Amino acid sequence: LFYSKLPAQLQPVLRDTKDILRDYQTLGKGNINVSYKDPNENPQLREEAMSLGIREVSFNVIGRGEFQLQKGYLGLVVSYAGKNENIPFIQNTSDIEYRLTSFIKKLTAKERKKIVFLSGHGEKSIYRDYRALKGEIEKQFDIEEFAFDKDKTSLPEKTEVLVIAGPSQKIDDNTRSIIKG
User: What is the predicted pLDDT for the residue at 174?
Assistant: First the structure.
């Protein structure tokens, strides 16, 4: 966790983030190490934060009848085996557990599983109709759209899930039998 002196409105976010990280470390039974760094302490930590995608952010602070601009850091990096995932700036902690768990799963997975979306029968397209869903799925899985034809008579290798998203045309018996396996 990279953080520096933060305005009062972000102190609860920092406190909650530290509590969540402490829980991960405790429940990780030695597999999760947490370190806290303040990039304002020295230029090397600032460079490290920047290289990991953590940026300095400006905060508006109102105090004693005056308006001030304060700069600081509140970002998080999850590292494993030379790979990193980050949250450049933590504005709230509502989804931080989901994001941390997703990062850990993504970084530690030995092989990405594949989700295949059937096409050719008027199905919804993951690329056109479900862009937001696609963005989330791609964080953890490989995605492919697939249509059977005379050269493609079986599902792609390593298919874990086949999605048939609202076909508007009848799926022929041959395709049905291939899908059933």
Answer: 82
Buried b (16+ CB within 10 A) or exposed e, 152-179: eeebeeeeeeebeeeeeeebeeebeeee
Handedness of CA 18, 90, 131, 113 (dihedral sign): negative
- Please tell me the predicted confidence (pLDDT) of residue 98: 92
Per DSSP, helices labelled H in 28-63 are: 43-51
d(CA 118, CA 167): 9
Specify the pTM. Answer: 0.71
> Do 40 and 74 contact (CB within 8 A), yes or no?
no
Compute the Cα dihedral for 127, 128, 131, 137 and give only its sign.
negative
Query: What 8-state DSSP symbol labels residue 121?
Result: S
Which residues in the chain come in under a pLDDT of 70? none
- 142 membership: H or E segment, kind and range: strand 141-146
Compute φ and ψ for 105, nearest 5 degrees. -60, -45
pLDDT at 71: 86
The structure tokens listed for 27 are: 């429940």
